[in-house]
Amino acid sequence: MNATIEQAINEQIKWEMYSANLYLSMSAWLQDEGLSGFANWMRVQYQEETDHALKFYDFILSRGGKVTLSQIDAPPTTWDSVLDVFEATLTHEQEVTRRINELTYLTKEVKDFASDIFMQWFVTEQIEEEENVRDILNKLRLIKGEGQGMLMLDQEMAQRVYTPSTTNA
Ligand code: FEO
Known about the structure:
Elements: H1 3-32, H2 36-62, H3 82-109, H4 113-143, H5 147-157
The structure holds MU-OXO-diiron.
């Protein structure tokens, strides 16, 4: 496969694995705060990020490229509040979107159309990723940390179930 794309996708694998670790770290912090519903939501987010990494991994191998794993930075371990966690999540997802867009642009630039088509799934996924976090942020801002509201939102967050991505096979 095109060497520039191979290198860029390997870099993206690293980024997705960092994302997974970041969300697992957030999940642990939320659990420690006694918010098991929020912790569940973040744990599912961790599983989805692992899926994203594997999607890129499988794609490189399917194109006859070389997977190169590299060192992943340690994520933060503490946050000021639940609102702080989700503000950090939105900022992080916006950075992911920027990287996905850059990578997609690169596939077009080098006329790697197979990779371009492959990237479309991630372009669409990022719309949903950002939308989900914005929705939670809006609710958190409405509740303003008030006990009853937080309890109800925590119960809602407990409902999220991990669904493996069908295109990983
Ligand atoms: Fe892998 Fe949350 O994007």
